[in-house]
Amino acid sequence: MRYLPKSPAERQQMLTAIGVKSVEELFTSIPERYRLKQPLHLPGPMSEAEVIGYFQERAAENSAGYTSFLGAGVYSHLRSVVTDALLQRGEFLTSYTPYQAEITQGTLQAIFEFQTLMCQLTGQEVANASMYDGSTATTEAVLMAERVTGRSRVLVARSLHPEYRDVLRTYAKNSGLTVEEIHYTASGTLDVAALKSSLRDDVCAVVVQSPNFFGAIENLGTVAEAAHAAGALLVVAVTEALSLAVVKAPAEADIVALEGQSLGLPPSYGGPFVGVIASREKFVRQMPGRLAGQTTDQDGRRGFVLTLATREQHIRREKATSNICTNQALCALAATIHLSLLGKEGIREMAEQNVAKARFALNELEKIPGVNRTFPAPFFNEFTVEFPRSVKMVNAELLKSRIIGPYVLGPAYPELTKHALVCVTETTTRAQIEHFVAGVRAALDQPL
Amino acid sequence: MNDRIKKATRHTNQNEGLIFEKSSPGKRAFDLAALDVPPANMGKELGEFHRANGIQDFPEVSEIEVIRHFTRLSTWNYAIDLGMYPLGSCTMKYNPRVNEHVARLAGIATEHPYQPQHLSQGCLKVLSLLEKCLLEITGMDAITLQPAAGAQGELVGLLLIRAYHQKNGNPRKKVLIPDSAHGTNPATAVIAGYEVENIKSNADGQVDIATLREKVTEDVAALMLTNPSTLGIFEQQIPEIAGILHAKGALLYMDGANMNALAGITRPGDLGVDVMHLNLHKTFSTPHGGGGPGAGPVAMKKALEPFLPLPVLAQKADGTLALDFNRKDSIGKVKAFGGNFGVLVRALAYILAYGPGVRQATEDAVTNANYIRKQLEGVFDLPYTRPSMHEVVFSDAIQKKHGVNTMDIAKRLIDYGFHPYTTAFPLIVPGALMIEPTESESKEECDFFVDAMKSIAEEAEQTPEIVKTAPHTTRIRRLDEVAAARKPILRWKP
């Protein structure tokens, strides 16, 4: 086997040195009747070429050749080939969690840079080294708010990503948290009046997403004011991190739970992505996850270490702030490289292209009789439209033109029966947008 | 001293500032195609929400500067690609390069989780085949690939157990955890709403059966057992332990972090385990990447299947694969968009490369650990003498007499060109040296390691200062962790 660096003779030499006759003797502590007598029924062994061939065949069974207008928490953005070239340096790829700081300064300094970039992006004072993804970061942000406030009611915007709400419910079930939903208004943003009437002194967190699941940008100042007046923390979830290049940072938030997939990670059928928790300095000891900090060595040179570990499971065990151990370090590194490449001007330009293309797509769609924008609130690269027919039917027609149509809102929002969430990024060309709009027009022109 | 060091070390490349310190306005490393639609009036589009001044202090550098910056940082890291990484409990094995290649293929990396399922059959087939392979390896009945890492796998496991007991009328109160367990076990039990009761290991480092019998009551939901234990010892009484639990209606959870000792040799499902997680970034070779991403699939017996997280992969009548969201007893979702698909792809690539030969990997891993144990026994104190599986745990009791502790020895190993072993864990061994070579080390590399350890033991006796002040060959010396925690500096500021 090509991955195993031993010849038969070397194996024998080692067994002799150990003092056993055969390798079976090394397994005698496993009761005999539980030891497998037959080889496992597994496909393979495969050569490298066969492994590649298998996955190329699978890749061909997916969506190659289709143009997609899906977003809803996972976005297609341009990535430089430089990112993958650097990520695949073995020194990054095949290194462990940097507990031995002297020989992992590369990873540690990169995490420190990542934390800094996340603070700059979110307008927060501290950011952690990563969480699994945006959905678990949002849940961990709520658990953090529970620790900070000692309260256990959570008010969650209905316009928070449906899957993020699902994850929060799964975790909340056994943590003594009660989760209540706050509706949105006709503008597509949080109903602040409803929020105020639900806010009492038992609420630990108000959770909103911005831009929210419908693409609408929330007025966080107003929400923060209401939450803070009741002594609750404001948790802001961001699923489209690129928006923060042109949309004001959620500086009013007490905790920001960010999904960083947009910052240099491919959609990859849903993962691995990179979650982040950013917050105020005063709450840092209640934060979950790893943190890299700056310090000096015994000769006074700048260096970095994992710090404030007394919050973490390997030290605190059942009293830890979270059970998270493995995080998404390599994905955080991808984001760090990607953002360094984009830089201040590149990320602004990329974000502005998203706004321009989404606006262009909306204008073109609105020219179709019966197609209407649902919510008037400002948006970034996603918006909600209503069709005169079911979105499912429109999407079925679009597939014939090799277009994967927009996200269908109905299943998660039964009140939005004919509504679609359209996403357009800088990767979509004008020609593709026009092809899509023509496809929608044709679908709606079909006789019923 | 230098003649003792057979391997060359690096980590000494030039000093490199932070990316922010290289920034100068107007530089950039990325260009976009010209906009092919009318430009947006950003002030009009976003109104009061417009971040008109951009992101303050974001870096502005050129492409070659980005390449050099991260390449230089990378040279400060130790990595499996450079040499043996014997971190006990972490299974730092070779991460095959082909796995990286296939995970990045167009049609694999490019797919959106919400695209129509008939246009996702390739992805679903990958998931389905990986499920089948992992069930065969573990001997279990059902599996979820959703958990993002081992700790989340543990949580799913306990939520399944909770749902199972709930369905039987009582979720129960306690989870039993041996004192040798990983820290994630107790931290997870609390999130699942359970009280933790620690149980002491006996003198052999095994679960004490008499104590267990006493502790298992109708209040106990499950025992979380790591097997082989964190001492690298196979828990021989595991069928009996399962019997004691099952007699009281409690379940056996197995932390599969150490599956690298068992794959192809024995199957947890056959040993009486009810539910377990696997760490694909350990046993199944997906890269640790400096701390993640991982994947923590959870395999279970039939009785727990109704509670699987959503969605569940299912085959339709026409033979195509689909995601089933309609399961009334499900524990719900633990992560948006399913599992860490890119990690799952890599794990399947690993299994396909080995096929049934995965057993040979296990044999080599166990051979390496026992070889190192044999060579170092007597040089270092071996507190538990039962047969070792994939790792061996020594203590620093002998070196302590000279004022040298496990951390000092670990740091000195760096000078010899190795990553340290795991220090100070498991907690039941004071001053532990936890060594897991994995199957990826040649006899030559194991011999280098043994020589290095023997040499350090000699140094500890003759010139302990050199060990206590190690490392001496790295770009930076031991760092002031106390200062870092007392006044945390967690970000760069201009």
Please explain how this structure is put together:
The complex is a heterodimer of chains A (448) and B (494). Chain A is of the alpha/beta class and 448 residues long. Chain A contains 13 helices and 15 strands. Chain A folds into 2 domains: 114 residues, Alpha-Beta Complex (Aspartate Aminotransferase, domain 1); 258 residues, Type I PLP-dependent aspartate aminotransferase-like (Major domain) (Aspartate Aminotransferase, domain 2), CATH 3.40.640. In chain A, the strands form 4 sheets. A 7-stranded mixed beta sheet of chain A has the order 2-8-7-6-5-3-4, with helices on both faces. In chain A, strands 11-12-15-14 form a 4-stranded antiparallel beta sheet, covered by helices on one side. The longest helix of chain A is centred in the last third of the chain and has 38 residues. Chain A is globular and about 85 Å long. The mean pLDDT of chain A is 97. With 494 residues, chain B is α/β, with parallel strands linked by helices. Chain B has a 7-stranded mixed beta sheet, with helices on both faces. In chain B, strand 2, helix 6 and strand 3 form a beta-alpha-beta unit. In chain B, helix 3 packs across helix 9, helix 5 crosses helix 6 and helix 10 runs parallel beside helix 13. The model of chain B has no long low-confidence stretch (mean pLDDT 95). Chains A and B meet through helix 1, helix 2, helix 3, helix 4 and helix 5 of A and helix 1, helix 2, helix 3, helix 4 and helix 5 of B.
